[in-house]
Amino acid sequence: MTFTRKLMVVVAFGWLASTLIATPDAQADVYELRIYKTAEGKLDALNARFRDHTMRLFKKHGIESIGYWVPTDEEASKDTLIYVIKHASREAAAESWKAFIADPEWKKAAAASGVGRLAEPPESIYMEATDYSPNYENAEGDEDDVFELRIYKAREGTLGKLDARFRDHTIDLFAKHGIKSVAYWHPTDEPDSNDTLIYIIEHESADAAKQSWKAFGSDPAWKKAARESGVGGLAKKPESIYMKATDYSPIQ
Fold it and tell me: Domain map of the chain by residue range?
């Protein structure tokens, strides 16, 4: 079972908007990580639909596109789209999805796209940015870069210490070893909000990623920070997906 099955709320697209319930902190910006798995041979059609219609209609209905990626894994690269969008609040998300789904232009684009039904219901997790999440900016020459989506599940009571380690040490050490931080989030809904860190980093290439992780892992400064952080071992092995940005992704 993949991390998406374990950590994300499975939401049927047709009734997503009607099932969202605003929470007391609904007025804060929220991000949404979504994963689509298409029927065989339909990923190109799905990408075309996002490129030519969906992103524009998202914007029309108050949904901000952050980034769109396809996994580099051979099998997943054939049928999987991973993306992150931003809403003004959970309440705004519900309203935006409702308006988007009901939009006649969206219905026409969906019918004409040739995508058909997805192979599985879309997967979704709502998130909030950590206080150390950077303001990411694209840089020249990033077209060949590889992104990495990583999920950490901390042992009970240690998420704050894990955050402190990233805030005070890990991000700087990532930069030292050629790893660019894109964004860091916590899920907004329990139980994952209590123990889960989701983040995306960027490497110059797949080979560079291997070299960077090797150098990072052997760095005495990292070993010292890890030892003194009080985090200990994670509750489970970190999970990761290497990804390439689509040609229409705002993040490249």
Answer: 3-128, 146-245
Helix residue ranges, H only, the chain: 3-7, 16-19, 43-49, 55-60, 90-102, 104-112, 159-165, 171-176, 206-218, 220-228
Task: Name the residue type at position 109.
Answer: A
User: One digit per residue, pLDDT tens: the chain, 252 residues?
Assistant: 454 444 443 333 333 333 333 343 445 799 999 999 999 999 999 999 999 999 999 999 999 999 999 999 999 999 999 999 999 999 999 999 999 999 999 999 999 999 999 999 999 999 999 999 999 988 876 677 999 999 999 999 999 999 999 999 999 999 999 999 999 999 999 999 999 999 999 999 999 999 999 999 999 999 999 999 999 999 999 999 999 999 999 999
Per-residue CA distances from 205 to 146, 149, 177, 183, 227 (Å): 5, 14, 13, 18, 29
How big is the chain by its Cα radius of gyration, in Å?
A: 18
Q: What is the CATH number of domain 146-245?
A: 3.30.70.100
For residue 15, the tally of other CB atoms under 10 A from its CB is 12
What's this model's pTM, rounded to 2 decimal places?
A: 0.88
Are 3-128 and 146-245 in the same CATH fold? yes
Q: What tokens were used for 85?
A: 């969008």
Q: Could you give the angle at which helices 220-228 and 206-218 cross, rounded to 10 degrees?
A: 60
Q: Topology of domain 3-128, per CATH?
A: Alpha-Beta Plaits (3.30.70)
Question: Which residue matches tokens 């709320």?
Answer: 9
Element (H, E) at 187: strand 180-187
